[in-house]
Amino acid sequence: MTIRVLLADDQNLVRTSFAMLVSSAGDMEVVAEAGTGREAVELARSARADLIVMDIRMPDLDGIEATRLIAADEDLAGVKVLVLTTYETDEHIVEALRAGASGFLVKDIRPAELLDAIRTVAAGESLLSPGPTSRLIARFLLAPNTAPKPALGGPSELSERERQVLALVARGLNNAEIADALGLSPLTAKTHVSRIMGKLGARDRAQLVIVAYESGLVIPGTV
């Protein structure tokens, strides 16, 4: 199935480069390009993209607010947002995840990594891997913050097995790795993740990571 991609970035050169790269992949196509956050929201509604590659810093409406509007639109419930940042230490990354993004990329990634990231997020996985990136996110998630957070449930609503699965999701493991770690079949691991998302009201795995860190189920520095 072809992945329909919307590119949102205020730099023409960046959009053109990404468009050429995405169009070169046999399993995806660029259906629209936006130069501002507001334009990205409008095109998300009209172009019916599966995934939006969203720059954080844009005029008119920044990528975080644009992501929040897209995530809140019931008609766009299946649309995934992959945010871009110039620096990996950008604290806005966490706000983008809280707003509903499914992951983030640093702009200087290799071309193949961008394509893999699009496939990963389009498939419903969060783009959060173990190591420094997860520790960065954990630090900002647990820091005092007055920004609105998703109205999600907490781990207390889960069974012990589901809490184990959630902790592994927060550490960046995919379904196959979770299955291996807990001695489950991949299908059972996938079923657990789906049930957890349903119980917590999470739209994707990225929000599960937020719940795990903010509830203290996963402690910074342990990933």
Architecture overview:
With 223 residues, the chain is α/β, with parallel strands linked by helices. The chain has 2 domains: 125 residues, Response regulator (Rossmann fold, 3-Layer(aba) Sandwich), CATH 3.40.50; 74 residues, Arc Repressor Mutant, subunit A. Helices cover 49% and strands 13% of the residues. The chain has a 5-stranded parallel β-sheet with strand order 2-1-3-4-5, with helices on both faces. Helix 8 crosses helix 9. It is globular.
Write the topology of this structure.
Blueprint: E1 3-8, H1 12-24, E2 28-34, H2 37-47, E3 51-55, H3 63-72, E4 80-85, H4 92-99, E5 103-106, H5 111-122, H6 132-142, H7 160-170, H8 175-182, H9 186-200, H10 205-214
Helix pairs in contact: 2-3, 3-4, 7-9, 7-10, 8-9
Organism: Streptomyces sviceus (strain ATCC 29083 / DSM 924 / JCM 4929 / NBRC 13980 / NCIMB 11184 / NRRL 5439 / UC 5370)
InterPro entries: CheY-like_superfamily, NreC/VraR/RcsB-like_REC, Sig_transdc_resp-reg_C-effctor, Sig_transdc_resp-reg_receiver, Tscrpt_reg_LuxR_C, WalR-like
Keywords: DNA-binding, Phosphoprotein, Transcription, Transcription regulation
- What's the number of helices? 10
Determine and state the CATH class of the largest domain. Alpha Beta
| Order of SSEs | EHEHEHEHEHHHHHH
Strand content: 5-15%
Compute the separation of the termini in Å.
Answer: 34 Å
Radius of gyration: 17 Å
Report the CATH topology name of the largest domain. Answer: Rossmann fold
Q: Name the CATH architecture of the largest domain.
A: 3-Layer(aba) Sandwich
Overall tally of domains: 2
* Structural class determined from secondary elements: alpha/beta
Unreliable stretches (pLDDT < 50, length at least 5) are: 146-150
- What is the name of the CATH superfamily of the largest domain? Response regulator
Main pleated sheet = 5 strands, parallel
Quote the average pLDDT. Answer: 83
DSSP helix fraction: 40-55%
Characterize the overall form: globular
Give a count of the beta strands, DSSP E runs of length 2 or more.
Answer: 5
